[in-house]
């Protein structure tokens, strides 16, 4: 019997009326027809759904708990299908979470592969997804980049604090925030920031103080905790959920985006990054150019638990 075609017999999903077709492999086949004629019902709901179901059946009961189970499509038989990669009709672009892997169905397959064969074992497929709370890097929340204070824009190093070295409007001379630095006692307020020592920079950006500062501002006396510029900026602007449009525009001028220092841009939590197959973690594989990925995957020999090497 030839295996050069996918043979579908008696497909009855949705409006399909016992459709039997043979679809040649290794060539491009196009399904055309008026809207509602059943193209998606045949291609996605029957062929791709059955391919996915058969693939899912090869996993252990534990792993299958994490996979969707849509049941068997309504049809008599399907022969000679292999794993399907679905590229959906969804629009591309516009989402910072999209990659070639998320747009095609390759990522779910790689997650299954790692959940089954990754060393150390024991993670469910969702732990390999940067869009899942279990799998995402906690620092950048799975985006791979973090937003940071852009110090070169925030300060004018040629100026002292008294001359208005802090350029963000909320930190202007005589403002409440400005006062907390000038009255901290940490700095010579007439010294240009370019002449600050390492230690002074460190105090300005990340300094802490055990006791509270006593500040008089617009007739009121207030006790406040000293907070370094980096921490204050993060708390006031970066971690802030809603912001007025004006504040957002100001904010955009003072930040830059940098690769996440914890996941190095891979977007994944430590456990997912630690799991390896043939020396590669899942981020190595998803960042590979497709042809090289094919070579690496083809070179893997996966043994079933009873020790023999399945073919196919
Ligand atoms: N989940 C569903 N439940 C019930 N009926 C459905 C479902 N999906 C599709 N149908 C119906 O099945 C028929 C075929 O729909 P299908 O989406 O397969 O058509 P199509 O040829 O892909 O159309 P289009 O060109 O608009 O994508 C339509 O009458 C549709 O309303
Ligand atoms: Mg369709």
From TrEMBL:
InterPro entries: P-loop_NTPase (IPR027417). Belongs to the ABC transporter superfamily. UvrA family. Transmembrane segments: none annotated. Signal peptide: none annotated. Keywords: ATP-binding, Cytoplasm, DNA damage, DNA excision, DNA repair, DNA-binding, Excision nuclease, Nucleotide-binding, Repeat. The keyword Membrane does not apply. It comes from the Bacteria. This is UvrABC system protein A. It is found in: Cytoplasm. Its main location: cytoplasm. Gene3D superfamilies: ABC transporter ATPase domain-like, ABC transporter ATPase like domain, P-loop containing nucleotide triphosphate hydrolases.
């Amino acid at each position: 019997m030839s295996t050069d075609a996918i043979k579908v017999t008696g497909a009855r999903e949705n409006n399909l009326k016992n459709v039997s077709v043979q679809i040649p492999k290794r060539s491009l086949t196009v399904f055309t027809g008026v809207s509602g004629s059943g193209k998606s019902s045949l291609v996605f709901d029957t062929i791709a759904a059955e391919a996915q179901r058969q693939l899912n059946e090869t996993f252990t009961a534990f792993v299958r708990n994490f996979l969707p189970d849509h049941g068997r499509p309504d049809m008599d038989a399907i022969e000679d299908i292999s794993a399907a990669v679905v590229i959906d009709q969804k629009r591309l672009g516009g989402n910072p979470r999209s990659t070639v892997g998320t747009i095609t169905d390759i990522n779910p397959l790689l997650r299954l592969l790692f959940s089954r064969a990754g060393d150390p074992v024991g993670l469910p497929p969702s732990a390999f997804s940067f869009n899942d709370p279990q799998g995402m890097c906690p620092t950048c929340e799975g985006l791979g980049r973090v937003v940071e204070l852009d110090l070169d824009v925030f300060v004018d190093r040629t100026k002292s604090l008294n001359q208005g070295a802090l350029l963000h409007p909320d930190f202007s001379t005589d403002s409440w925030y400005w006062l907390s630095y000038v009255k901290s006692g940490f700095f010579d307020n007439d010294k240009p920031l370019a002449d600050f020592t390492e230690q002074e920079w460190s105090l300005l950006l990340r300094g802490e103080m055990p006791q509270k500062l006593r500040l008089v501002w617009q007739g009121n006396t207030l006790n406040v905790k000293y907070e370094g510029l980096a921490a204050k900026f993060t708390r006031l602007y970066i971690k802030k959920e809603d912001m007025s449009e004006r504040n957002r525009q100001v904010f955009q001028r003072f930040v830059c985006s940098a690769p996440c220092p914890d996941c190095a841009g891979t977007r994944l939590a430590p456990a997912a990054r630690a799991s390896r197959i043939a020396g590669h973690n899942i981020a190595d594989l998803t960042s590979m150019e497709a042809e090289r990925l094919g070579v690496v995957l083809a070179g893997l020999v996966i043994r079933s638990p009873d020790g023999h090497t399945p073919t196919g």
